[in-house]
Amino acid sequence: MDEKPQSTVLTRSRLAEDIRDLGLGAGDAVMIHAAFSRVGPVLGGPDTLVDAVLDVIGPDGTLLSYQDWELAVDIWDDDGRVVDHLRAHVPPFDPATARPSRSHGIIAATIGTRPGVRRSGNPGASVAALGARAEEFVTSHPLDFGYGEGSPFARLVETGGQVVMVGAPLDTMTLLHHAEHLADLPGKRRVRVEYPLLSPAGGVTWRTVEEFDTSDPVVEGPADDYFRLIVEEYLATGAGNQGQIGQAPSVLVDAAGIVTFAVRWLEQRYGRR
Question: Which residues contact 260 (CB under 8 A, 6 or more apart)?
Answer without folding.
Answer: none
